Amino acid sequence: MEEFEVAVIGAGPAGATAAYLLAKSGLSVLLIERGTYPGSKNVSGGLIYTEVLGQVYPGFWEEAPIERPITGHDIVLLGGDAAVALSFRKAAVESAAPPHNAYSVLRARFDPWLAGKAEAAGATLVTGVTVDKLVIENDRVVGVQAGPDRVAANVVVDAEGTRALLLRQARLIGPFHSGEVSLGIKEVIRLPEGTIHERFLCSRQTGTALTMIGHTLGVSGGGFLYTNRDSLSVGVVAKLDSLHRSGRRPHEILGEFKAHPFVSRLVEGGEVVEYSAQTVHQGGLHHSSTLCGDGYVVVGSAARLILNNLFTLRGMDLAVVSGVAAAQAVLEAHRRNDFSASALSVYRDYLRSTPVYQDMETFRGARSVLSNRRFFEIYPDLACAVTEELFAVHKTPSTKLFRILRDKAKGKVSGLDLVRDAAALARVLAI
User: Fold this and answer.
1) What does the pLDDT read at residue 217?
2) Mean pLDDT lowest among 23-37, 129-143, 344-358
């Protein structure tokens, strides 16, 4: 039986960051990845925010395989054959010194770089190995088992991802409810760099991220599109219970989304070079799993650390933050030679002190909006109809916004529900 001071399950941003910091501090670390290489099993929209990553890996943008700085953001409501968009662009951003607020990345390129940093710091990386179970003795996690091989460790860092099969198998967390889980379906579509510049009005130093709502066959969820260097990351995130009720297949939802005129003109002529799908936990503080116990800590999406504040879906920066907090806790436990749940509980304290965790506190009310089907099934069409009327010129006198809204909403949503939903949205975003 091999022995390491720390065994890390999963070489995504959370696991690789924890392994990097622990190995850098002199601990013997085993980093286990079930994919043939880090990133081969990961699915994400593909945005990484620099505030946290830059603290752990200073100047990462100069050496990491990033795609584009994301300098423009669009929020788009997709109606039947129309769209209403709120766009942000910053002037003279091409001349701004890096780092930018966010970069698009492709996980198949980015994750191997992260894992390579951990290796360079002294961690042992093994790939193509599936951990079958957590080894538990006297109610304490003491290592991992993969096939006939057992590895002992003072602490196991669980970064296995959203499904958290090992944690559920060991009954360290409870079962998931379908209403708490979504399915992310994504394509990477290759397009010439010049075409991306023309369609998205960007340059080599700029890029765009679009968050879209509507046109998903009535399934609750939303879409995204990010510009990479010579490709687009395009996908939808659909709530699992809503998808099940619809009877639709995942690729049908993505196909309908891509067929919308607003989206189709952006992806026209592109070649699909990658298709992937993965469950995504709804996340949030109300869903946080047990973060630690005797001999283990849980990081990243395995700990359900996802933030959806309605205009961005953040996961990778939360993963990095949790990897940092976990490493701090493990190092403190190592100094005290105490790996009990009580000793490792400082992980929660480190995590709660971070701005990212506080963002989760700020936007915890987003759950009520995301659970409201009207925001996905009714309001995108309503917004398009109202906006079209605002710009229309008729033979009859024009009317004001409230009356247009009232007329267009008739038979679709009651005035009381409209007021309630507006108030809920305001509480999340403005109050």
Assistant:
1) 87
2) 344-358
Q: Which residues pair with 297 in a beta bridge?
A: 157, 292
Burial (CB < 10 A; 0-12, 13-18, 19+), residue 106, is buried
Determine the residue type at 387: T
Answer yes or no: is pLDDT of 325 > 90.
yes
Rounded Cα distance, 176 and 283, in Å: 11
Distance CA 360, CA 352 (A): 10
Q: And the tokens for 101?
A: 């607020």
- pLDDT category of residue 431 using cuts at 50, 70 and 90: low
User: Rg of the chain over CA atoms, in angstroms?
Assistant: 23
C-alpha to C-alpha distance for 23 and 29, rounded to whole angstroms: 6
What is the Cα–Cα distance from 334 to 297, expressed in whole angstroms?
Answer: 14
- pLDDT for residue 357: 85
Q: Residue 315, exposed/middle/buried by CB under 10 A (0-12, 13-18, 19+)? A: buried
CA angle (375 as vertex; 289, 209 as ends), nearest 5: 75
Residue 269 has pLDDT above 60, yes or no: yes
Query: Cα 324 vs. chain centroid, distance in angstroms?
Result: 18
Q: What is the 3-state secondary structure (H, E, C) of the chain?
A: CEEEEEEEECCCHHHHHHHHHHHHCCCCEEEEECCCCCCCCCCCCCEEEHHHHHHHCCCHHHCCCEEEECCEEEEEEECCCCEEEEEEECCCHHHCCCCCCEEEECHHHHHHHHHHHHHHCCCEEEECCCCCEEEEECCEEEEEEECCEEEEEEEEEECCCCCCHHHHHCCCCCCCCHHHEEEEEEEEEECCHHHHHHHHCCCCCCCEEEEEECCCCCCCEEEEEEECCCEEEEEEEEEHHHHHHHCCCHHHHHHHHHHCHHHHHHHCCCEEEEEEEEEEECCCHHHCCCCEECCEEECHHHHCCCEECCCCEECHHHHHHHHHHHHHHHHHHHHHCCCCHHHHCHHHHHHHCCHHHHHHHHCCCHHHHHCCCHHHHCHHHHHHHHHHHHHCCCCCCCCCHHHHHHHHHCCCCCHHHHHHHHHHHHHHHCC
Q: What distances in angstroms separate CA 59 from CA 52, 179, 203, 322, one per listed residue?
A: 12, 40, 22, 20
User: Above 70 in pLDDT, residue 29?
Assistant: yes
Side-chain half-sphere exposure of 218, counting CA atoms within 13 A: 5
